[in-house]
Amino acid sequence: MDNEQPHQELVKCVLVGDTAVGKTRLICARACNKHVSLSQLLNTHVPTVWAIDQYRIYKDVLERSWEIVDSVNVSLRLWDTFGDHDKDRRFAYGRSDVVLLCFSIANPVSLRNCRAMWYPEIRKFCPDTPVILVGCKNDLRYMYRDETYLSYFGDRSPFVRAARKSDLVMPDEARAVAKELGVAYYETSVFTYFGVNEVFENAIRAALIARREHRFWMTNLKRVQRPILQAPFRPPKPPPPEVTVITGTHTKDMLNMFNSQCYTDLVLIVGTIRFSVHRFMLASSSNAFHRLLTMDISDMGARSSSESSMVSSTFGESTTADFNEDTECLIRAEQNKAPNRMWEQLKRRSSYQALPTVEPKKDLYRELHHPVFQSIRVFQIENGKHTYTQTQTIVSVSKLITPQAMQQCLKFIYTGAIDRECLDLQEIRQAAEFLELPQLMVLLSNTQANQSFMNDETIQHYSTCMKQNLEKYCVQDGIFGDITFELDDGHMKAHRAMLVARCDVMKAMLNGDFREAHANLIVLPGVTEYTFHKLLCYLYTDEIPPISADKCLNLLELANRLCLPRLLNLVECRVIEDLTRMSQNETSEAVEHCLRLLESVKLHNAHQLAEWCMSYLCVNYNSICKLSPRSLKSLHPDNQDYLREHRWPPVWYLKDYDYYQRCMNELNRELNNGKKDCTADDKGCLCFSGGKSKRSAVAAKSTLQTAITASSEHQSDMVSTSLFQSNANSVNQLDPEHDGADL
Questions:
Q1: What residue segments make up the domains of the chain, in order of their start?
Q2: Please, which pLDDT band fits residue 512 given cuts at 50, 70 and 90?
Q3: For residues 174 and 48, what is the distance between their CA atoms, to the nearest angstrom?
Q4: Angstrom distance (rounded) from CA 151 to CA 154
Q5: 139 with 148: CB under 8 angstroms?
Q6: What angle do CA 219, 224, 227 make, to 5 degrees?
Q7: What tens digit of pLDDT does each residue of 429-451 get?
């Protein structure tokens, strides 16, 4: 043939088999030295034949056909054939050195045809040619239930369907056919590239050994070994399922809380405009507000509310009337008169609608020596609708801050952003400086310098700091809390505004006609401080701290009861992180937790965590059978069936590996016997020494070393021999409920 190199053995390899078993794909994978993608494999099959002219046309294909096997230069020529049974293939069989009889592992009919039709045809035209049985598409043994693989068949014709488990040919079945035919057996996959080079290397060895029997004088063929036993293919470990978390709505909820002004307890009077806000939000975001709202003003003395020049809102909501200077003049003019007469006059004023429906208690008032804050007033009112006591605070702000600037500062405190249409950024910057909002100052500086692309990092930094302060001051310290929860092991404070804004169930409970809407103390039976603390961390910060796997059930139950799906997902992520950390310690702790959580978390709709636990148990099924057989039997029968069905490594691999170990042990015994024969022959006369025994021992040793090397290359992470004993019953010991016949 053209372009042949000197001292090179030409080997003609013919591939035969049914249509669509993978002959052409196997040849292309070997000739092009690359695997085939899943989309290429699942395209509609078009019967093709690999043209032998490819070796003349493409130089790279020709060069890849040159190979050195056992120190012998070989030029491999691959011949493809049609899969139709009625075609005449005698031209392909002519002068063939080895024949690969191919079948599809996902098509048992093709295996039966190998025995009934193809092998007799091969022996008819090639009676002395070595034959190798090749199982193609062995990746379908684990890919048949892969979601990506199954998705390709969704829009296909009803005549094209995915492989099923009942269609798969197991290694022991194919090996039995190979034993009946008296040929070697190998498996390949062009998707994973498993066994592609190995099957052709051993086909070359079989061809060269057959050639050596006819050409015994060829010295370059004396070192050719027998075909090497193929190590079993272990399916890749299934990856753990991904856990998705619902996108949070924390920023949106904070904006709604700012706009709705529900349960506000602080009024900022800026000029003629009043802003109803929440003390815990301002104290957590600004050091200036924190010092102002937490200082003790009780030692300054109390005075009647009629002496105040400020008007508060009812129930924490903004008032409908604006601040009226005439009201202050009226109060000052009538402050020496009787209180009843004063209230009668105030009722006739237009601003009376902004006052509480009941006369408030004595309040605390203090003049402030601050460039921005002029005075502060704190008093108690009773909510007329829900009959609970609420603390109201009124702070008057100087003219150094305009109402527009205060509006943007408050919006930044709640949401971390300002309106883009703001024109006077200098006023907002001055207000941010007085209110000690450094992140807002940086944001405005970037905007003025046309570096708005840096604002995302600034907003993220503010959000992180704000959440940390909310957790510190509001969750842990309970600052300005207006509602108390009685738990099984203690009490914790919270804020109605945050609960209503972040949880729909809490909103219905606190705003509806329920008993909890009229009480300052709410009893939550079955909830501990540990669980409720995690819940408040989520409501205030949209995140939860780390949680251990043994304490997650109560939080999952509470999240499911309050209809908080994002909290449910966050708990699942935290528990999976904890279980992953346990699994790295090589102990059975993670397995025990998964067995305990598997069925419990399903009751609380934590389906992603249940799926992860099931996947982890499937991967560690052998360890469960050894360490926790009772816990395994205590599971629901459906879960037990699922674990047996999806166990890893699968049963067919364990049986194939057991067979491989027995063959390697027999080969090792042959090597040891060869060494003994060599030692016995060396004791006699050199003229009659067993040279043949020496050569056979050396050949056996070389074959064993090559087999071990091939095994380590294909199964670098194979299960240790101590786990699977090399006897026929070793596989059965891994499943306490199934005997060898079931396997």
A1: 9-215, 264-296+362-473, 482-646
A2: confident
A3: 26
A4: 5
A5: no
A6: 160
A7: 999 999 999 999 999 998 888 88
In tens, the pLDDT along 616-633 reads 999 999 889 988 889 999
Taking alpha carbons only, the member of 59, 57, 136 closest to residue 104 is 136
Q: What percent of the chain has pLDDT over 90?
A: 56
Give the right CATH number for 264-296+362-473 from 2.40.50.100, 3.40.50.300, 3.30.70.920, 3.30.710.10: 3.30.710.10
Residue 600 CB neighbours (<10 A): 16
The answer to whether 208 and 98 have CB atoms below 8 angstroms apart is: no
Residue labelled with tokens 């090749």: 134
Placement of tokens 């992140």 in the chain: 439
In the chain, the amino acid numbered 446 is N
The mean of the pLDDT values for the chain is 81
Classified by CATH at the fold level, domain 482-646 comes out as: Potassium Channel Kv1.1; Chain A (3.30.710)
Q: Which residue has the tokens 């995302």?
A: 456
Cβ(190)–Cβ(34) below 8 Å:
no
Cα angle at 92 between 89 and 98, to 5 degrees? 120
Pseudo-torsion of CA 75, 80, 85, 90, nearest 10°? -50
Distance between CA atoms of 48 and 15, rounded to whole angstroms? Answer: 13
As a whole number of angstroms, the distance between CA 99 and CA 15 comes to 6
Identify each DSSP E strand in 105-249 by its residue range: 131-136, 184-187
- Residues 227, 213: Cα–Cα separation, whole Å: 15
Beta bridge partners of 522: 485
What local confidence, expressed as pLDDT, does residue 277 receive?
95
Q: Do domains 264-296+362-473 and 482-646 have the same CATH topology?
A: yes
CB atoms within 10 A of CB 344: 10
> How big, in percent rounded to 5, are the helix, strand and coil portions of the chain?
50, 10, 35
Burial label for 337, CB within 10 Å (0-12, 13-18, 19+), is: exposed
Please state, in angstroms and as integers, the Cα–Cα distance from residue 370 to each residue in 275, 288, 376, following that order. 19, 10, 11
- Calpha distance 138→73 (Å, rounded): 30
Q: In CATH, what is the architecture of 9-215?
A: 3-Layer(aba) Sandwich (3.40)
Q: What is the full DSSP assignment across 698-728?
A: HHHHHHHHHHHHHHHHH-TTPPPTTTS-SST
Mean pLDDT, residues 564-587 taken together: 92
CA dist 561 and 555 (Å) reads 10
Nearest CA among 51, 43, 241 for reference residue 152: 43
Closest CA to 591 of 627, 560, 640: 627
What token pair was written down for 404?
A: 């527009």
Alpha helices, DSSP H, located in 584-606: 589-597
Burial of 72 (0-12, 13-18, 19+ CB in 10 A): buried
Q: Indicate the helix (H) or strand (E) that contains 445.
A: helix 438-448
Beta-carbon count within 10 A of 362 CB: 10
Strands (E), 406-507: 483-487, 490-494
Average pLDDT (564-569) is 96
DSSP alpha helix (H) spans, 50-167: 54-57, 59-64, 90-93, 108-113, 119-125, 140-143, 147-151
| C-beta neighbour count of 677 within 10 angstroms | 16
Helix or strand (DSSP H, E) at 617: helix 607-619
pLDDT of res. 97: 95
Give yes or no for a contact between 321 and 351, defined as CB atoms under 8 angstroms apart: yes
- Are 192 and 139 in contact by the 8 Å Cβ rule? The answer is yes
In 10 A of CB 170, how many CB atoms? Answer: 17
pLDDT grade for 257, boundaries at 50, 70 and 90: very high
Name the token pair of 342: 């004063």
Token representation of residue 285: 């975001």
**Structure-block tokens of residue 396:** 């008057």
